[in-house]
């Protein structure tokens, strides 16, 4: 007499395995926080754009094409990325020898960003400002031949960039040649 062995899983075993998988997937998704990961990715792009804007400003200043004081932000002409002097960085001069297109903030809209307003608060990993423009700011001062560039950080972990940039703002990552980085004032709705 032959014995027949059935191979496979019982229904209860399958339910247990599926339950364990569901718990693991939920834990991974909660740990990863996909929305925060997207904010961090946009912040990485902002930091890359900050370096690009610094290179543009350094070259424009050294070539002497900056001939007057100015203050610009990428929200003024939200989709104008032209480098031919008609884009948001309105030098009135051709910047195409430095960059093919001008960078703009990945969102370039009103939103919530990391940081605090004014000079009293400090940016920590829970501090945010709501309903402010997410855009890039550039200021140039002819008398001192100096500039400042400000970009926002969207993820709360971006506060480390806001705190360690050497500038006077609690709401922006600042870079440039201006002493103390004080060419652009720190405004809540800026």
List its salient traits:
3 helices; single chain; 16% strand; 6 strands; alpha+beta; two-stranded antiparallel sheet; 30% helix; 190 residues
Description:
The protein is α+β, with helices and mostly antiparallel strands and 190 residues long. 30% of the residues lie in helices and 16% in strands. The chain contains 3 helices and 6 strands, in the order ααβββββαβ. It has helices at 11-32, 34-63, 159-163; strands spanning 70-73, 110-114, 128-133, 137-141, 146-151, 173-176. Strand 4 and strand 5 form a beta hairpin. The model has no long low-confidence stretch (mean pLDDT 82).
How are the SSEs placed, and which strands pair?
Layout: H1 11-32, H2 34-63, E1 70-73, E2 110-114, E3 128-133, E4 137-141, E5 146-151, H3 159-163, E6 173-176
Give a quick rundown of the structure.
The protein is an alpha+beta fold. The protein has helices at residues 11-32, 34-63, 159-163; strands at 70-73, 110-114, 128-133, 137-141, 146-151, 173-176.
